[in-house]
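hiii so um. not sure if this is the right channel but i have a protein structure encoded as tokens and i wanna go backwards to a sequence. like what aa goes where. can anyone help
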């Protein structure tokens, strides 16, 4: 059976990061989990 799951994450950062004169206080993104029978992959 094939399936895909998408997970969203948000991690606070103590120091932050400055990009284009804007300070980012959290790191956000997506994690993809693919499954096909006994095989699986994360990305």
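sure thing!! here u go:
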């Amino acid at each position: 059976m094939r399936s895909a799951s998408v997970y969203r994450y948000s991690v606070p950062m103590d120091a932050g990061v400055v990009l284009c004169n804007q300070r980012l206080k959290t790191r956000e993104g997506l994690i993809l989990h693919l499954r096909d029978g006994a095989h699986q992959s994360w990305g």
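oh and The chain has no helices and three strands.
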